[in-house]
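Record format v2
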Amino acid sequence: MHIVVCIKQVPDTKNVRIDPDTHTLVRQGVESIINPFDMFAIEGALKIKDQNGARVTVVTMGPPQASEALRETLGLGVDDAVLLSDRAFAGSDTWATSTTLSAAIRKMGDVDLILCGKQAVDGDTAQVGPEMAALLDVPYATFVKNIDTRESGFVKVVRQTDEGTEVWRLQLPALMTVIKELGEPRVPSLRHKMRAKKAEVAVWGTAELGLDPNSTGLSGSFTQVVRVFSPQRRGNRIQLEGSIENQVEQLFQHLKKARVPGL
Amino acid sequence: MKAIVDKQRCTVCGVCSEACPMGAISLRENGIEISDDCSLCGICVDTCEFGALSLPEVGQGPSEDPSSYRGVWVYAEWREGKVHAVSHELLSAGRILADKRGVELGAVLLGSGIDDRVAEELIAYGAEVVYVIDHPELAHFTDERYSKCIVELVGRKRPEIFLAGATSMGRSFIPRVAAGLRTGLTADCTELDIADDGHLLQTRPAFGGNVMATIICPNRRPQMATVRPKVMKPVRLQGRKGRIERVDLPAECFKARVEVLEVIAEQDRTAKLTEADVIVSGGRGLRSAENFSLIENLAQLMNGAVGASRGAVEEGWMAPSHQVGQTGRTVAPTLYVAVGISGAVQHLVGMQGSEVIVAVNKDPSAPIFDVATYGVVADLFEFIPEFTKRIKREREG
Ligand SMILES: Cc1cc2nc3c(=O)[nH]c(=O)nc-3n(C[C@H](O)[C@H](O)[C@H](O)COP(=O)(O)OP(=O)(O)OC[C@H]3O[C@@H](n4cnc5c(N)ncnc54)[C@H](O)[C@@H]3O)c2cc1C
Ligand SMILES: Nc1ncnc2c1ncn2[C@@H]1O[C@H](COP(=O)(O)O)[C@@H](O)[C@H]1O
């Protein structure tokens, strides 16, 4: 079984704080991390590999330094890594991203299972997975928390919805977007780290993918950002003071005046 | 491709460099330099008061004539025998857009065994026409069948705008519809408007709610967006008139390579975080699983849901499905009460869209207070029981 995991490098928000005045991120030399949901996808793929044997390939579309993220996953036990990098890819919306990623998966050919994170934490769109499935014309399931590959030619998944959980059986090849319950990522092993250092990361651009540069990046995107602005700042915070009884009464009256539900 | 600098206008003031989330702008003696890290997000364009920055044009794509598309459509999400509240909200928002454009407002209803009365309700909320696709294979939701049906119907009727709720169902299959129709899609919008030229102005939070972005889909139709529940107000009017059209689609639309084996509804009502008007959330400050009963009691009293920080989930005091934040749920209730939560940025991005935020924390410098509407610096073990009592007294009195 060949599993491809799509990962994205995103800004690390661990050390950032929100500036209370400007309401923007205070970024102190923000580093990049692998999108947390994609780490769960990698763990899911490696678990399948551990149990039934599988070849795991990670792919990312991003700037040249995204190869660091790929190398990190090689240290976890991923077999191969592919970087999709080309100036023509910059400014991609989810459609253009899916176009490029699905071209790469088509080029790989023999893919059985494609795993994505539920969403990337920078853009939060959760669209790339489903759009890719449409472009590749494969069945898919979103918000997956358990994957069972024991039946040949099929995959059984448990997915978490707003209403509860569902068990689906999908014909392979299939795509899934995954959530945290699939498993916390393992720590890199020394053996794999040694290999990761020397491993080759393939780099594919528009030429390798056989894509028209005009169908990728900003020029291949359908949506356009026309304005970016700071969200309206909250009215100044009201700090309650005094004894516990006093604070309780003040809060109660404020909430009552604000007509919040539930009182 | 990267942002374009007009050297004539640039004063090398450095504001854009500060604002760039990719750290792609550096200051040089005679101007700014934009590196290959530029993700074309456009934040710099907006911060530059000299108009020195711009983005290259988006692609045209092989577009059909946009003016051949007419009408505003809303996907009416029908689950567990009822229409999701967000669909009513969207019909009311759609009504305004349709009136501005002078076009018809349609609703699309998919499922199995749908009574006409369900469609009549949608008319009361503003729809002039309800397209009903009723088929046994639609009894359980699957992305494949639902998206094929909508792609087919949109292809026939050609609406210019298509809206759906940003629920787990909408966020799951609407991207496939958009891809199938070869059009753009904006996720999780919190504001919609229409420009005179017919462009749908779709505003959504980005970078974890720290910036807002307005997005258009200039050259493709329909213009598609998913919209967060609870941001639009539903308006129901008795006596509205509309028609119901039951649509037959080719058998191909109901074929899928997916089989739904089991559907287990969540028993725990309080887990329905994304739909709740009130959420009471607890963090590590609660100190134990037992103490979470303080949170649960208050939530129950206020008819709300129980949330938790990752700190509390990691301690095992709450199930992961209750987690609010970057790796949990994003919520935006009318009232969010954060109890014993420090307010790490990963938590804040999941709840700062709430209308009213109450923070209870004994540490006055806890970052949760930065986003709070009402800040209570107090020991939660003293404050929460008293506050719960106060609400009870009001109820009884
Ligand atoms: C990649 C990544 C993703 C993450 N995703 C999420 C996420 O989705 N959601 C999330 O919540 N976190 C997330 N986190 C974790 C986040 O960084 C914090 O660690 C977490 O939110 C802390 O939880 P907490 O506020 O409950 O605990 P703490 O930070 O320990 O805060 C406890 C607070 O309780 C207060 N307190 C203690 N006792 C009392 C008392 N008696 N009365 C009143 N106040 C009291 C303390 O003053 C303190 O402020 C993520 C982290 C990473 C790295
Ligand atoms: N540039 C990218 N390269 C590889 N995978 C990506 C990229 N962007 C998004 N993805 C995948 O799609 C998922 C959803 O991303 P998004 O639609 O941006 O929220 C991510 O969790 C990744 O698995």
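The CA atoms of residues 278 and 302 of chain B lie 7 Å apart.
Chain B touches chain A through 121 residues (CB under 8 Å).
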